[in-house]
TrEMBL record:
The name this protein goes by in its record: Aspartokinase
GO annotation terms (biological process): homoserine biosynthetic process; lysine biosynthetic process via diaminopimelate; threonine biosynthetic process
Limits of the ACT domain: 278-353, 359-422
Enzyme class (EC, first level): transferase
Coiled coil: none
Residues the record lists as binding ATP: 7-10, 177-178, 183, 188, 213-214
Annotated GO CC locations: cytosol
Molecular function per GO: aspartate kinase activity; ATP binding
This protein's pathway: Amino-acid biosynthesis; L-methionine biosynthesis via de novo pathway; L-homoserine from L-aspartate: step 1/3; Amino-acid biosynthesis; L-lysine biosynthesis via DAP pathway; (S)-tetrahydrodipicolinate from L-aspartate: step 1/4; Amino-acid biosynthesis; L-threonine biosynthesis; L-threonine from L-aspartate: step 1/5
Positions annotated to bind substrate: 47, 78
Catalytic reaction equation(s): L-aspartate + ATP = 4-phospho-L-aspartate + ADP
Gene3D superfamilies assigned: Acetylglutamate kinase-like, VC0802-like
Higher taxonomy: Bacteria, Pseudomonadati, Pseudomonadota, Betaproteobacteria, Burkholderiales
Organism: Inhella crocodyli
Length: 422
């Protein structure tokens, strides 16, 4: 008997018919002798609908007290899902009970709309499991120390599931979604994308942080920290497929470096359309200037991603960086009205229509010329690179958003990702 956590995403929970299928699949696992904790997301489109309603009432201003209410609103999507799934399980003859985050409780910090899980009390869940119940826990939500409902950021149900698995010391966490695993890149953009049987934890962490939405980054961080065995697989296979086959399908996130020497240099391509670029022209090139610019941006709680500072000419330089597109208007405003004048910038420019495309692979640690190959491929497609950022196992470029799909497809081909690795 194993303790298994299943997570089902929005599409997998998209209708009562699909919820019935989820219940049948879960019941199959229970009948095979396992203890099951299930973490569903809101039904597809529901979180957007709920946040859209709030936006109708408050289009621009998002104060901390409004963020508190956004979490109270968005969390209801998952609350409906757990209730429905628990009913469907009971219809399958299972004993099942649903809990919202606060009932477990799943404690988080107070950062509304992007809260971090701090602790999970497993006592109640363990008692239910011991009594033979299936426990259904809301994804995406938690509760802070003052009992305010919080949410974990978009895609946060993945993190709920992995965190519950870590707290319960589950034998495995299975992330059921609308694709049958982690691919070399988003199969919706590149039909030739290939499913990976395994992906290393480090690569998955980069892919997720660079925009692959198949797993929320924090879920991968949790899996790494607590060594939670994690697998991504399809919820659209027939629910009654052989459980042994199901258990080894999809993509396993591995923690040991692959022994295979012939590992592909580049394992995957990630992209992110959610960024925007801002530039300050003609700022004095002197010590402290980066701090004078980025300090106030950080104080405004705006995350900064790629940064570039040009060589100086006549003691002046240009300084660009990217921020999340949601923070773009606020950041541009700050630069135009406060930071720009303070550092005597001659001009402040903004471009929200950029994107970031990244190649990721552990093999890049030991191979030279990988970035050069990426740049050659982009130049052959006449795509201009605006910014570059590298780490040991990734190279990212910022380019015009309109070339994103072209760049991803061309790179996928250039690095032979449509071919099975040797
Ligand atoms: P869920 O609702 O189940 O959480 P998501 O929409 O959050 O599902 O994540 C699954 C989606 O992630 C897929 O439908 C796919 O379009 C996208 N995706 C992006 N990059 C990848 C990748 N490398 N491999 C697989 N899917 C990816
Ligand atoms: N329902 C939330 C969202 O749409 C959480 C999730 O699906 O993981 O972002
Ligand atoms: Mg998701």
């Amino acid at each position: 008997m194993a303790l298994i956590v299943h997570k089902y995403g929005g599409t997998s929970m998209g209708s009562t018919e699909r919820i019935r299928n989820v219940a049948k699949r879960v019941a199959k696992w229970v009948r095979a002798g396992h203890q099951l904790v299930v973490v569903p997301s809101a039904m597809s489109g529901e979180t957007n609908r709920l946040l859209g309603l709030a936006k109708e009432l408050s289009p621009e201003v998002v104060t901390p007290s409004i963020q508190r209410e956004l979490d109270a609103i968005a969390a209801t999507g998952e609350q409906v899902s757990v209730g429905l799934l628990s009913i469907a399980l009971q219809q399958e003859g299972m004993e099942a009970v649903s809990y919202s985050g606060w009932q477990v409780p799943i404690r988080t910090d107070k950062s509304y709309t992007k809260a971090r899980i701090q602790s999970i009390d497993d006592a109640r869940v363990r008692a239910d499991l011991a009594a033979g119940r299936v426990v259904v826990i809301t994804g995406f939500q938690g509760v802070d120390e003052d009992d305010n409902v919080t949410t974990l950021g978009r895609g946060g149900s993945d993190t709920s599931a992995v965190a519950v698995a870590a707290a319960m010391k589950a034998d495995e966490c299975l992330i059921y979604t609308d694709v049958d695993g982690v691919y070399t890149t988003d199969p919706r953009i590149v039909p030739e994308a290939r499913r990976l049987h395994t992906i290393s934890f480090e690569e998955m962490l980069e892919m997720a942080s660079l925009g692959s939405k198949v797993l929320q980054i924090r879920s991968v961080e949790f899996a790494g920290k607590y060594r939670v065995p994690l697998r991504v697989l399809s919820s659209f296979t027939p629910w009654d497929i052989d459980i042994v086959e199901e258990a080894k399908s999809g993509t396993l996130i591995t923690f040991e470096e692959d022994e295979k020497m012939e590992q592909a240099v580049v394992s995957g391509i990630a992209f992110n359309r959610d960024e925007a670029k801002v530039t300050l022209l003609g700022v004095p090139d002197k010590p402290g200037i980066a701090f004078q610019i980025l300090g106030p941006v950080a104080d405004a709680n705006i995350d900064i991603d790629v940064i570039i500072q040009n060589v100086s000419q006549d003691g002046k330089t240009d300084f660009s960086f990217t921020v999340h597109r949601n923070d773009y208007a606020r950041c541009l405003d700050l630069l135009k009205n406060t930071v720009g004048p303070a550092v005597q910038a001659t001009q402040v420019l903004g471009d929200p229509k950029i994107c970031k495309v990244s190649i990721v692979g552990i093999g890049m640690k030991s191979h030279v010329g990988v970035a050069a190959k990426m740049f050659r491929c982009l130049s052959e497609e006449a795509i201009n690179i605006q910014m570059i950022s590298t780490s040991e196992i990734k190279t990212s470029v910022v380019i015009d958003e309109k070339y994103m799909e072209l760049a991803v497809r061309a790179l996928h081909k250039a690095f032979d990702l449509d071919q099975e690795a040797a």
